[in-house]
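HCP-like protein: structure, please.
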Amino acid sequence: MTSSSQNIFCYSSLIGYFYQHGIGCEVNEAKAFEIFSNAIKYIQKTESNKFSFDQNNKTTTDDIEKLNEIVLQYFYSLFIYKNIILNKYGIYKLHIRNAEKGDPTSQYYIGSCYYYGIKIKCDHNKAIEWYLKSSEGGNIKSMYMLGHCYSVGSGVIKDVKKAFEFYLKSAEGGHKYASSRLGYFYCFGIGIVKDKSKAFEFYLRAAEKGCASSQFDVANFYYDGIYVPKDEEKGFYWCRKAAIYGSLYAQHKLAEHYLNNPINKNENKAFKWYLKLANKNDSVAIYLIAKCYRDGIGTDKSLVEAEKWIQKYITSYGSEKPQLKLNDFLNGSDY
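Here you go.
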């Protein structure tokens, strides 16, 4: 790896991984981080030159080289964020050292430590300082967090116009949630003139990157057909995607669609989506699951299961019990 700068990222993903996990050597996370970080910086430094060369000569980088770049960035990301995932912050000192040297990724990490009170006392003012430094280095996550801070007034005076500006920079860099926020800002005229067409554009951008809330927004745009041509098929496509990605609103709408739509009616699928929601303690879904078991909708009829679920529904209201008697429900009365 050290014999030639051209090979720095071809082998660094493996060598860094070996140091990280002690494969053939002693565990040395500092060394692993140094290797990953230097290789990433090398890639960033040469990326613009490669792009110009490719454009002028109509050639592409060798496939193996590209694959090694991807593997390296994958390992680097896991190394950086595994401590957040596992709630271990042993490399905080390593991050602060690299942050002070100007590494945007470490600066973002330190900003988040201050913002969420990870390893150190929560300090939104300090978080803003680090996010700004990281943002100046091109980190789109820091740009997004600055947009969030300005939109709610965390560590700064609330300023929706500045929030819009930071969200826009982050979205231009490819941050899906920043695109989603821009869609919301355009939709309701926050920090910018209301523009539903622009809102749809940014919602769609976020939806295509996997943002569940924006997928549901896009679905509703197609269902309503006010700012884009009405298209039930596209509405259903995006609603289903949003449901799969975890949007509770989309899951409700999809279940209702399968239950009542004359073309795509599928009571079994409706039951499964309602059951998914009921298992998350959604009271409406709990009631509907009880009804499905009572009437045999999408599942085998079972008064035993119906009683279990309707009792859960009644209990979920605590002292504010709904005006519904168990026997009346089991005999066919609806709430």
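Notes: Confidence is low (pLDDT under 50) at residues 50-61.
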